[in-house]
Write a sequence for this structure.
């Protein structure tokens, strides 16, 4: 894994506009950053990222199977009791999942270490699947990138195929916040994929979802929603006023309710408990667990629920090295061994490994100036050396 | 936007410069909607090409139906009467006027007791039009129609303007370009009626996200709320 500096294409913003990439810059700061790329060997991709992702996903499914039958586990994840039946039923029906993203700390000297599993509402999808792909194709066509370079990125094909395989014939409604450009962009791309799979794919605001007296969720016009993709995490769904209706509604969800068991940092403690010493897992304990003392004076404390690095605390040799602000942590924390992100001249690179269905489907990298990857991180493309 | 597939090098000489098939990435990436058309186009009906359509007639008044003479005056009168009866019995009920207006537009709603005593205390969309088949042979149910003007689409429409059109009591969309009475409606919309009035509550999702994303020390995210 190397970081290669390269002049950005002078006309990349034009390419972005043509490709519908509207959220490449936030508050004047770049999000898409093609002033460099990361280069991997094929062996690194396949052996260090792809194969462990598939294996960890299998382990996660085994954990879900255990969790839905163990109320102690569900309680440890701070999942409200009124959601347990919905979670259990969705797993017993084998409601299909669409996608997820593992985040890894990976450096050449050791195996990739799982930091967390964004199993419910991962973003950075469009830029991974499309604009990163276009960047490579354009770079190859212009001779700016090494001849024969490849990319680990079957996301687009995999997403279209997944919708074709699991979306009901009548289509999927896509819900999110219309006023959040990044979320809206991710949703628009997923709508596009569903459409290419031959499904109707209307958007609706998550706040416009209605609940009819017969217990069905309905769209703005009152039509029942058969299948709902929501870019709105399960812990918020369950906490909302309609949360108790999820279990009795006939609406099916992408991601399904059982993903709530995985999109929770408590997962990391349970996985370590299931497979202590697993090469791709970091020792992790619930904050209440005295066993956390084994981590000593260097660790990361993460809220059970949280996103974009908010409320993450990094302690190195007994000293606070970084602390992200934010609104999370009310439900508790886990403590994870510190696996610092590799440092490329002051830039810290986080690897995102995409899953579509049950299969690894691509890679994305985000770069931060600090130890914690936040919503200010920059998306940097990657390639596989020829 | 359509992107050309990666050049296939099947049968290419083994120069070592290109693989015969780049196996780790998509062979082609095409976008039918994200590029160009914009998100608003996604909310228009009729996206599913496999869905059969019915030709139907939509009129804002009995007089318009009779005047156009596509159907007999008797058929117009019977259809209008059926639509009015169906309207009172099956129009969606909303708990508040704001809930109703959010989906049917300002001026699109009325207190329930003005329509039927059974809807006392609720709010109903006004019957904006009625829909009937182009011919009797289609055997389409007569349906009252309501203004379809959800707040989000009105906001998103911007300068391009959103046609809005109508929706049925069962929630089906009827795209309607002003002036034209003949419309093509998916068969599922034309043939699905609501038999019982439904009370729909709104706003039960999203509150936790709003409260969480816009509180706390970080001041909320610039680009995303629910994603991560």
């Amino acid at each position: 894994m190397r970081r290669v500096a390269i002049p950005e294409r002078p006309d990349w913003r034009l390419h972005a506009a043509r490709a519908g990439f509207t959220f490449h810059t936030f508050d004047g700061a770049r999000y898409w950053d093609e002033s460099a790329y990361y280069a991997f060997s094929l062996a690194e991709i396949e052996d260090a990222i792809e194969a462990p992702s598939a294996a960890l996903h299998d382990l996660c499914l085994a954990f879900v199977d255990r969790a839905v039958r163990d109320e102690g586990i569900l309680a440890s994840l701070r999942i409200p009791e009124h959601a347990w039946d919905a979670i259990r039923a969705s797993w017993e029906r084998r409601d299909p999942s669409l996608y997820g993203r593992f985040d890894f700390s990976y450096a050449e000297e050791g195996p990739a270490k799982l930091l967390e599993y964004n199993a419910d509402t991962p973003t950075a999808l469009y830029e991974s699947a499309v604009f990163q792909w276009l960047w490579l194709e354009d770079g190859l066509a212009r001779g700016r990138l090494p001849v024969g370079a490849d990319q680990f990125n079957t996301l687009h094909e995999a997403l279209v195929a997944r919708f074709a395989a699991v979306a009901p014939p009548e289509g999927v409604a896509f819900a999110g916040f219309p006023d959040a450009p990044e979320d809206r962009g991710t949703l628009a791309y997923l709508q596009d994929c569903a459409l290419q799979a031959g499904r109707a794919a209307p958007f609706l605001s998550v706040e416009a979802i209605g609940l009819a007296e017969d217990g069905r969720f309905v769209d703005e016009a009152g039509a029942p929603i058969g299948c709902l993709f929501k870019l709105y995490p399960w812990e918020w769904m369950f906490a909302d006023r309609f949360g108790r209706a999820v279990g009795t509604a006939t609406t099916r969800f992408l991601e399904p309710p059982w993903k709530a068991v995985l999109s929770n940092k408590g997962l990391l403690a349970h996985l370590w408990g299931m497979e202590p010493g697993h090469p791709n897992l970091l020792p992790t304990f619930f904050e209440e667990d005295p066993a956390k003392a084994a981590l000593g004076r260097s660790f990361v404390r993460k809220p059970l629920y949280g996103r974009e690095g908010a409320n993450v605390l990094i302690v190195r040799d007994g000293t606070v090295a970084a602390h992200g602000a934010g609104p999370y942590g009310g439900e508790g924390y886990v403590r994870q061994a510190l696996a610092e992100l590799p440092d490329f001249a002051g830039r810290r690179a986080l690897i995102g490994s995409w899953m579509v269905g049950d299969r690894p489907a691509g890679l994305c990298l985000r770069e931060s100036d600090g130890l914690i990857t936040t919503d200010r991180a920059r998306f940097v493309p990657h390639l596989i050396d020829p | 936007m359509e992107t050309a597939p990666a050049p296939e090098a099947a049968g290419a000489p083994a120069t070592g410069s290109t693989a015969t098939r780049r196996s780790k990435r998509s062979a082609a990436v095409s976008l039918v909607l994200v590029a160009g058309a914009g998100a608003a186009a996604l909310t228009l009906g009729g996206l599913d090409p496999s869905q059969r359509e019915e030709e139907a007639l939509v009129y804002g008044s009995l007089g318009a139906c009779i005047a156009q003479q596509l159907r007999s005056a008797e058929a117009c009168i019977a259809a209008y009467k059926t639509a009015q009866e169906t309207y009172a019995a099956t129009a969606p009920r909303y708990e508040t006027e704001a809930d109703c207006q959010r989906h049917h537009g300002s001026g699109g709603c009325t207190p329930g007791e003005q329509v039927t005593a059974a809807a006392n205390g609720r709010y109903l969309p006004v019957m904006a039009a009625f829909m009937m088949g182009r011919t009797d042979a289609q055997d389409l149910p007569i349906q009252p129609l309501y203004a379809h003007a959800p707040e989000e689409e009105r906001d998103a429409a911007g300068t391009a303007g959103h046609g809005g059109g109508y929706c049925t009591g069962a929630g089906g969309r009827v795209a309607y370009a002003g002036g034209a009475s003949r419309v093509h409606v998916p068969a599922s919309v034309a043939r699905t009626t609501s038999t019982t009035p439904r009370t729909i509550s709104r706003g039960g999702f999203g509150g936790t996200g709003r409260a969480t994303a816009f509180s706390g020390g970080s001041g909320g995210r610039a680009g995303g709320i629910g994603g991560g």
User: Anything to note?
Assistant: Chain A has a mean pLDDT of 94. Chain A touches chain B through 97 residues (CB under 8 Å).
